[in-house]
Amino acid sequence: MSNDAKNSYVSVSTAAYDGYEFGTILSSMARCGVQNIEFAFIDGYVEAFTDSDFTEAFANELKSEMHRHGQQCRYFSGHIDLGLENAAERLKARCRFAASLGASYVITNAATRDRAGTFFRQSGTLAAIAREHGIRILLENPGNGVPNLFDHAGDAQGLLARLDDHTFGINYDIGNLLAHCPKREPLRDARQAMALADHLHIKPCTRRNGGIDFVTFGEGDVDDSTWASELLRQGKPFSLELPFRLHRDRNAQPWRDEQPLPLDVIESHISRSLEELAFVTENP
After folding, report:
1. Apex 177 CA angle, 172 and 181, nearest 5
2. 176, 126, 122, 183: which is closest to 148 by C-alpha?
3. What is the pLDDT of residues 187-233, one digit of tens each?
4. Three-state SS for 235?
5. Torsion angle, CA of 233/16/167/81, rounded to 10 degrees?
6. How far is Cα of residue 94 from the mean position of the Cα atoms in its chain?
7. How far apart are alpha carbons 81 and 64 in whole angstroms?
8. CA-to-CA distance for 190 and 204, rounded, in angstroms?
9. How many Å apart are CA 239 and CA 218, to the nearest integer?
10. Rounded to two decimals, what is the model's pTM?
């Protein structure tokens, strides 16, 4: 393995376990050999929650459970639209919670284009909140087809130029691009974003029945192995986000299976994904 590959920080998102409680999730991830956790609290993508759930007691509980399994959390996904009028309050809850977990980054969305004015007006307040908690905000390109300030890689540089570069960065998600901007060539777009991105998501997916399903690493429409190999060579941190219960319809809107996947199926999918990634890591 190259030095750059060794220096890459690779985590796995809890989104794969939608429907399970976190004690079960972290124990299962430990059985799969996962040490770096990305917690996913994303409206509409995982089991329902509210901002009132982001308590210090809950953070301490999760941190204790991670410690028991030799795990850590550096990245926290808590997506909201930062163009909402109450975005500052909601971001504060997420930054405080993420910092209590030991995370340094909160991944969220920028804003839909119709909320651009509000987003830029309050961006200074949002930055101050993040700095207070020692957090860097990573803006992610969405996958729901609704025009956003960050639709694809071509938007990233102009967006960051208008923000505090000490506080705001980019989390690029190649899986979201397939649904959000289906006419763009994904690997070309991803390579354009890579130089600007602090962190990236690998979210394997495939187009089926007019929509999108999420699959294991190596089984998606994008060449996951080639993309991961490039990230490893560049020493870029990334997360495997494997939301197996989630789907998108032909209009890119998310929907979830009525029941969670069986735990052994999830573990099998994650283990297979990590085995494929390990092969790439040893042959970057």
Report:
1. 135
2. 176
3. 999 999 999 999 999 999 999 888 999 999 999 999 999 999 999 99
4. coil
5. 130
6. 14
7. 30
8. 14
9. 15
10. 0.95
